[in-house]
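Second opinion, please. Pick holes in both lines of this record:
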Amino acid sequence: MNAYDAVGRDIGESGSWVRKFLGRQPVRLDADTYLAIQDRYARECERWEAEADLQRARFFALGKGDDAMAQSTAQRVDVDAGRPVSRAGRVPAVVARLVDEDRQ
């Protein structure tokens, strides 16, 4: 019930009014109340987006420079297009060479 009261205070109505409005009971919705609801909703959305941006920035800052793929030199395995090639023997050697890169 405290949440209804808090929302009611934000929009200039009572907690009882909010419960009735959400419960689809007949209540009067004045233009001022409608605009207050719309304003509060917009402010909450902006706050959530700012928080998401902050969390995203913190997440990317944690891994900055730790990405092994970004640090290694790109290596390609050239394969002739349109020709079926059995690479079963080459794959372990290529993978081993890429994994052992850091040890050299």
About this structure: The chain has five helices and no strands. Residues 2-62 form one domain.
